[in-house]
């Protein structure tokens, strides 16, 4: 039955995403799927048994609104150790339903109609609909495929009286680039004389390669005072299906954040929070992740050497971009589809992350996969 209620969509531009299109095509053609950003291997059995233990011990009712105290304590300790900033356990940390909810809630809590939000493109897909649905104005800053570096002078020109928020993502999906200390210091200097809020998406904080440091916004004295830092246990511990993350922010920002959080979700999966609180207290559980994924990145790139794909090794995340401009002139969506239908390997075309769907002839491959999956994909890709 079709509705007689007239609908004027708040998100008229949101259509079936490229992730769904590629995922469906990959299934139809039984392709090796390096498109979707999640592991195809199991998490640590210790973590699973901690979750089932928490359920058997009866932690099956609502958790506190801001998150289980033990988990917030473990998060605060971890950030202090890693980034030397102490977030108050009671007032400055909230456990969320993945980073996606933290991001949506942060945008909803602060963005009013007409507020401008600077978004660095290519960008992960959840930022812009959240801005639009709240009446905000997206101010895109498109990076060049040649290194995906930010030109901070251009960035500065994007700031106006109406800029309310800047969204950054480091390590960056899809480019695999990380912000350097110099980037963060420059950003800090630019934002210092303003009242702009920084939304820092750091879901790949523990996937950083070649001995580099993750430069969290929480490491910088002035930035931290204006930042909402979002993180994801799903990404860090190979449990994307658990949808648990957190955000950390100074008390005044967090108080406002929680007003929205309380009525959007109230609280997050209790037994999983108990499990994560214990698991997080052993730092080797997250410190080992860098090496684990670095080996996968290296294996993937070794298999591509000698092909006509061009690449700069990812500095972080579990994504590798490949430039196929020496292989074909096809646009990235067509080539990505043909890779599935004719060759049996799936990836994501980067135009979907770019301003105005700009085609840079770049494809994103997720290497958070079992070695045998990567090996099968490489057998195909090495022919190019
Ligand atoms: C950059 C970025 N931010 C946020 C998310 C969402 O994280 P979560 O699954 O914890 O909601 C993702 C997931 O792919 C991501 O790549």
Fold blueprint:
Blueprint: H1 18-28, E1 32-33, H2 45-56, H3 69-83, E2 93-96, H4 98-110, E3 116-121, H5 127-133, E4 137-142, H6 152-158, E5 163-169, H7 181-191, E6 197-201, E7 227-232, H8 233-236, E8 245-248, H9 251-264, H10 270-280, H11 284-287, H12 289-304, E9 319-323, H13 332-343, E10 345-346, E11 348-349, E12 362-366, H14 371-381
Parallel strand pairs: 1-10, 3-4, 3-5, 5-6, 6-7
Antiparallel strand pairs: 2-8, 7-8, 9-12, 11-12
Helix pairs in contact: 2-10, 3-10, 4-9, 12-14
The structure holds pyridoxal-5'-phosphate.
Provide keyphrases for this structure.
384 residues, alpha/beta, seven-stranded mixed beta sheet, three-stranded antiparallel beta sheet, 12 strands, 14% strand, binds pyridoxal-5'-phosphate
What's the gist of this structure?
By secondary structure, the protein is of the alpha/beta class. The protein has helices spanning 18-28, 45-56, 69-83, 98-110, 127-133, 152-158, 181-191, 233-236, 251-264, 270-280, 284-287, 289-304, 332-343, 371-381; strands spanning 32-33, 93-96, 116-121, 137-142, 163-169, 197-201, 227-232, 245-248, 319-323, 345-346, 348-349, 362-366. It has 14 helices and twelve strands.
């Amino acid at each position: 039955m079709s509705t007689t209620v007239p609908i004027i969509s708040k998100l008229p531009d949101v259509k079936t995403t490229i992730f769904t299109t590629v995922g469906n095509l990959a299934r139809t053609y039984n392709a090796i799927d390096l498109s979707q950003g999640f592991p195809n291997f199991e998490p640590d059995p210790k973590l699973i048994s901690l979750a089932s233990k928490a359920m058997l011990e009866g932690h099956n009712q609502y958790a506190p609104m801001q998150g289980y105290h033990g988990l917030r304590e473990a998060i605060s300790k971890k950030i202090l150790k890693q980034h030397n900033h102490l977030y108050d356990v009671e007032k400055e940390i909230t456990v969320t339903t993945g980073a996606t909810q933290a991001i949506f809630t942060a945008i909803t809590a602060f963005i009013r109609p007409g507020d401008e939000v600077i978004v660095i493109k290519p960008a992960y897909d959840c930022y812009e609909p959240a801005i639009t649905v709240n009446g905000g104005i997206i101010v895109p800053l498109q990076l060049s495929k040649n290194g995906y570096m930010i030109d901070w002078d251009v960035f500065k020109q994007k700031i106006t009286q109406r800029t309310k928020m800047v969204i950054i993502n480091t390590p960056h999906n899809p480019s695999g680039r990380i912000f350097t200390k110099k980037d963060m210091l420059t950003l800090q200097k630019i934002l210092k004389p303003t009242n702009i809020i920084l939304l820092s998406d750091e879901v790949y904080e523990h996937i950083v390669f070649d001995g580099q440091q993750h430069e969290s916004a929480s490491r910088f004295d002035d930035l931290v005072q204006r930042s909402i830092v979002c993180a994801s246990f799903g990404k860090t511990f190979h449990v994307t299906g658990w949808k648990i993350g957190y955000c950390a922010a100074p008390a005044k920002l967090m108080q406002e954040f929680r007003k929205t959080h309380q009525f959007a979700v109230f609280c997050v999966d209790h037994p999983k929070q108990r499990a994560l609180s214990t698991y997080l207290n052993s730092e080797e559980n997250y410190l080992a992740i860098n090496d684990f994924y670095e080996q996968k990145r290296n294996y993937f790139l070794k298999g591509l050497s000698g092909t006509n794909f061009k690449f700069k090794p990812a500095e972080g995340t579990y994504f590798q971009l490949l430039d196929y401009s020496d292989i074909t002139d096809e646009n990235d969506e067509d080539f990505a589809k043909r890779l599935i239908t004719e060759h049996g390997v799936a990836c994501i075309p980067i135009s979907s992350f770019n301003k105005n769907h700009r085609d840079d002839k770049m494809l994103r491959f997720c290497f958070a996969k079992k070695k045998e999956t990567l090996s099968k994909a490489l057998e195909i890709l090495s022919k190019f």
